[in-house]
Specification:
Length: about 180
């Protein structure tokens, strides 16, 4: 992997985590209920497969099925459940997630957990570049992320290549704004 791409990943993850945390928590800090939800959410093989399958569907139609609207409306959400309900209400999202045996809450929590784990992993690798803090990740979820990191990165790269190919080498309009 080229050095530029290596440097882009931590930046992208940090920006994504900030956007996600903002989307889920309009208040200064997440509520005790949201922290408990993050701590009790468990990554496993079944979730990961469903998550990646749903991500493939989202990649085919990111402007309609993605969380872009959720991230843009970040200041209006005060909890994970509120953000998940907003995402679930987007046309086509509920049916797409149900086809992969997922709920919007699981998708939001899973994405937040995976992103938080990725940021913590980057923090370990590049402590000078990453500030402390972030959303909680259990030791079990961190271990799961570590064991599946290569698979996740390969999947993200594949999805990104397909999106660029489908859009003539450009980002979809909703992602380019």
């Amino acid at each position: 992997m080229r050095p530029t791409r290596m440097l882009m990943l931590p930046t992208l993850l940090a920006v994504l985590l900030s956007a996600i945390s903002g989307a889920a928590f309009a208040a200064d800090a997440p509520s005790a209920a949201d922290i408990a939800a993050m701590r009790s959410f468990t990554l496993d093989e079944t979730f990961l497969q469903h998550y990646m399958d749903a991500s493939d569907d989202i990649a085919r139609d990111p402007c309609r099925l993605g969380m872009i609207d959720l991230l843009k409306g970040g200041d209006s959400f005060t909890s994970i459940d509120q953000a998940a309900a907003h995402y679930d209400a987007q046309p086509g999202v509920h049916a797409m997630l149900a086809s992969h045996d997922l709920t919007a809450r699981e998708m939001v929590l899973g994405m937040m957990t995976l992103t938080s784990a990725a940021v913590q992993d980057m923090r370990k690798q590049h402590p000078q570049a990453m500030a402390e803090g972030g959303l909680p990740v259990s030791a079990a979820n961190m271990a799961f992320y570590d064991a599946h990191k290569a698979q996740l990165h390969q999947h993200m790269q594949s999805v990104a290549r397909e999106q660029l190919k489908a859009n003539g080498g450009k980002l979809p309009a909703c992602l380019a704004e």
